[in-house]
Amino acid sequence: MEFCSSQHHQTTMSIWKEEFQTFSQAFIDSIRAFCSVHYRNDCEQDCHLGYIIQTKHKQTYVFGETLCRWLSLPNDSLQQLTTLNGKIIKQVDYGLDFFVILTMDGSVYLASSDPCWQTDRKLRWIETGIEKIACGHEHLLLLGSDRRLMAMGWNGLGQTTGTAQHSHRSPVFTGLENVEKIACGWAHSLALTDTGRLYSWGLNESGRLGLNDEMNRNVPSEIEFTGEDDYQIKDFVAGAAHTLFLMKNGALYGCGWNDNGELGSPDFDQFELSPIRLPIENVEAIATGWSYRFTIAFTNDGSCYVWGEFGQDSIRLYHPTRIMADHLSSSWSFSAISSLYFDPPLTFGWCGRKVARLKVKQLNFAQYSQRIQCDPEHDYVSMMVKRFSITSDHSLTFP
């Protein structure tokens, strides 16, 4: 997940007030960017392991018992990572039992509780000359400044390419060059080249690779889009079992699992083997996570839509559902939207701090529940929602 100056990838400190209540105000004011290490595990439980935080003074800290344990640090307070003193962090991403930090000078560092990564419970230097990183459940992609794509980690499903079972000691070359963008799902990988060609490999159950079959791949295979649309890819994201492709014209396509509404329509099959156009237009930005089954999307008119499976209570929305609230503004972000469903919220990787404060009251999840019916055009589905109602035009309305 790439650190981005876009307003959608920034956050205000107001939604983190409860999480950061033990920090001094001076420290909070000094925060430049941070990452919440938060994922859904193999048992369908949401796990929050802690935070990686960098201040304006180029000092990096970890907070949280689990993350500190990975680094052999005391876990009762903020702990500084002195190895990174003076370095500016460009990206942070994480998998099941590891997190990875990329600094502006192209250096990559990794911490983990898994002995396969050979960290000795310290921050391990991995590589230099790296421009972007992306993590899946147990693997890692590293895009070099020379545009060659490398990979590390478990490879039992082909997610790092080749036939070796794993490559935790050093990166392996995926065979792809001239790469511009990368992403990882639970156990699949994607890369876009400078010629606009999009490749996928790894686990292909339910067609998440978009290759019109369910055969796993251990070599990058090109995804083909058919039809009359303009297939110039702007962005792509990968979830636990689905993949979405955003075109420059605002059209959104997806493939893979759809049982939880991942593809935004109950009219689609349970899963789609090839990219299919989703029922939403003029999309500007999208977000999900390698362990999740939901999507958040902003459109170019400033609207926000959500669909899929959300939150600790597994709320399911089977249509792109517009969030309606008078207090939404242009400063609304992916992180702020996630706070409606997750406690604590998600950062979607390395999240920059927004100076302006959102005038939004923090939701009390334990207090405002009601049972309603949703999807009025498709087999009324009962579900639990938090402090909002869904109208006949698939909109969320806040009191």
TrEMBL record:
InterPro entries on file: Ran_GTPase-activating, RCC1/BLIP-II, Reg_chr_condens
CC terms in the record's Gene Ontology section: cytoplasm
Extent of the RCC repeats: 196-249, 250-299
Database matches in Gene3D superfamilies: Regulator of chromosome condensation 1/beta-lactamase-inhibitor protein II (2.130.10.30)
Single GO MF annotation: guanyl-nucleotide exchange factor activity
Top-level taxon of origin: Eukaryota
Protein name: Uncharacterized protein
Organism: Euroglyphus maynei
